[in-house]
Design brief:
Layout: E1 3-8, E2 14-21, E3 24-40, E4 43-58, H1 64-75, E5 87-97, E6 102-111, E7 114-126, E8 130-140, E9 162-179
Antiparallel strand pairs: 1-3, 1-9, 2-3, 2-9, 3-4, 4-5, 5-6, 6-7, 7-8, 8-9
Length: 180
């Protein structure tokens, strides 16, 4: 059996987030701490990715004081509770190959110590020395106990409502670490 192992380069990889509310949207980045994945006989067989929740950055707010206040709020218990839960993890449980370098993947996503299964599509291009993974995932934040200004839990929010779904656009770059 031919096995290829890859290690994610956290400096070359990016995860962009977008959160929406009645009056607009906010966007930024969050860092990947580490990750690895394995191909067996040229098919994706496993992978684990760890996100550093303390690395949340807001890119659409230029005022430094407002930006710092918002970043602190995202790190608070209303959202990621980064002090208690500095990492979120995605672990691939099953990957089904498709056409054009696509894989239909189901896995477990853990945020704030709460794990839910998710299904997504990964576009993976690999060669013997490196690989890239791209995906866009839409998550319901309330499943991970992020209920702040959610219409599911609070009434009369008016234009302060924050939508439950947020997007992650993932671009991972990895290097081969071992070939058998």
């Amino acid at each position: 059996m031919n096995t290829q192992n890859f290690k994610v380069d956290h400096e070359k990889s990016t995860i962009e987030w977008t959160g929406r509310k009645i009056t607009g949207a906010h966007y930024g980045t969050i860092g990947i701490k580490e990750g690895s994945f394995t191909f067996k006989d040229n098919q994706l067989s496993s992978g684990t990715f760890i996100i550093d929740t303390r690395s949340i950055k807001i890119l659409d707010i230029e005022d430094a004081e407002t930006n710092a206040q918002f970043a602190g709020h995202l790190a608070s218990d209303d959202f990621f509770n980064s002090d208690q839960f500095p990492e979120s993890t995605f672990e691939i449980r099953h990957a089904e190959p498709g056409d054009d370098h696509l894989y239909y993947v189901n896995g477990d996503l853990t945020i704030k110590g709460i794990t839910h299964p998710i299904d997504t599509v990964l576009k993976i291009e690999n060669n013997p020395n490196s690989a890239t993974i791209q995906s866009k995932i839409v998550l319901d934040r309330t499943k991970y106990n992020m209920k702040f200004r959610s219409g599911n839990f609070f009434t009369d929010l008016g234009d302060t409502l924050i939508y439950n779904n947020f997007d992650l656009t993932i671009n991972l770059v990895a290097e081969s670490v071992e070939n058998n």
